[in-house]
Amino acid sequence: MAQTGGLQTVVDQAAGLDQLRSLVITQNGERLFAEAFRGPPLDRPANVKSVSKTIVALLTGIAIDRGVVEGVDQPVLPLLGREPFRDARDAMTIGDLLSMRAGVGSTSGGNYGAWVSSDDWVEYALRQPMNGPPGDRFIYSTGGWHILGAALSRASGLSLHRMAQDWLGNPLDIVMPPWVADPQGRYLGGNDMAISPLGLSRIGQMVLNRGELDGRRVIPESWLSRSWEPRARSPFSGDLYGYGWFLTRYGGRFAAYARGYGGQLLVVQPDRRLVVAITSDPNRPARGEGYFGDLRRLVNAISTAV
C-alpha cells in the first residue's frame, strides 16, 4: 500500500519495535496499512490475551439484548446456581464484573498461577478476600471475567466459545478457535482468546460503526454507548474504564481501547473514524513505562498522521 509521508514515518516507527508483530490501520472503512512484521500472518489467529475481556463485554451486551440475562443490575450468584455467601458478595452484579468493581481480591498478576492451578476457577475467584463492597473501586482481575463468562454460559446453555463464534465470529466472518478451559470445562473468560489481526480490526470496525458491519446488526448501539460511560479508573494507567473498555485520548481525541498482556491492542477512535489493531509477542511484558508506553506513543502518532 502506498503511504503518505506521515504514515510512513509511523510505519517505520512500528517496524522498529521488536516486540510488535502486526499492525492494521483502518480509517473510514478503508484499510490504510496492514502488515505482519514478524510472527504469524495477518489472517492467522493470535493470542490476544486480555483483549478477551472486551470480547466478553461485547457478548454480555448481546446476551442482554437476546434476553439471556436481564441486565447489568442482575445479581451474579443466582446465575451460577450458587448458594448465597451471606456477605457483600451476594450483591455482586453483572455490571460490577464488567467494570472490574466486583469487590473480591484479584486473581491476576502474582496471584494468577495459584488461581489457574486450583481445582475450580470460579469458586476460587469468588472466595478471594473482599477488598471493598461490590460497585466500589477498580480491582484488575481476570477471575471476575471468568465468573461472568461462566454465568453467561450457564444462562445461555452455550459454552463461552460457542457464544463467541456464533454471536461475534460468524456475523463478522472471523474464526475464533477454542482456547484454554478450566477443570470444569468452562472456557476462560477474560484471557487467551485467539483472533487474527484482521479479525480484530473487523471487530473494531463493527464497534466504530455502532454495532453494525456490512449492513448486519451484531451488537445493540445502546450497549456500546453504555460500555463507554466511565465507571472506574485504572490505578495503573490512570485511564478511565467502562464496561470492558479503557477510555483515554490519543492525538487529543477521545478513544476507547482493549488491552492485553504483552502489547495486544485494539483502539477505536470515533472522531477520526479510526481503528488500530496491534498484536505483539504474548510472552513478553508490556509495562506502562516500557513497551506499552511505546505503543501509546505509536497510536498517538497514528492518530495525528491520518
Total helices: the number is 11
Largest sheet: 8 strands, antiparallel
Strand order of the largest sheet: 2-1-12-11-10-9-8-7
Uncertain residue segments = none
CATH superfamily: DD-peptidase/beta-lactamase superfamily
Domain tally:
1
Radius of gyration, CA atoms, in whole angstroms:
18 Å
Global geometry: globular
Architecture, CATH level 2?
3-Layer(aba) Sandwich
Looking at CATH, which topology would you report? Beta-lactamase
Number of strands: 12
Oligomer: single chain
Order of helices and strands: HEEEHHHHHHHEHEEHEEEEEEH
User: What's the end-to-end separation, in Å?
Assistant: 14 Å
Structural notes for this entry:
The chain is of the alpha+beta class and 306 residues long. It has one domain: DD-peptidase/beta-lactamase superfamily (Beta-lactamase), CATH 3.40.710.10. The strands form three sheets. An eight-stranded antiparallel β-sheet has the order 2-1-12-11-10-9-8-7, sandwiched between helices. A two-stranded antiparallel ribbon has the order 3-4. A hairpin with a 2-residue loop joins strand 9 and strand 10. Helix 1 runs antiparallel to helix 11, helix 2 packs parallel to helix 7 and helix 2 crosses helix 8. The radius of gyration is 18 Å and the shape is globular. The two termini are 14 Å apart.
Topology:
Layout: H1 5-15, E1 20-27, E2 30-36, E3 46-47, H2 51-65, H3 77-80, H4 94-98, H5 112-116, H6 121-126, H7 142-156, H8 160-172, E4 194-195, H9 197-208, E5 212-213, E6 216-217, H10 221-227, E7 232-233, E8 240-241, E9 246-250, E10 253-260, E11 264-269, E12 274-280, H11 291-305
Antiparallel strand pairs: 1-2, 1-12, 3-4, 5-6, 7-8, 8-9, 9-10, 10-11, 11-12
Helix pairs in contact: 1-11, 2-7, 2-8
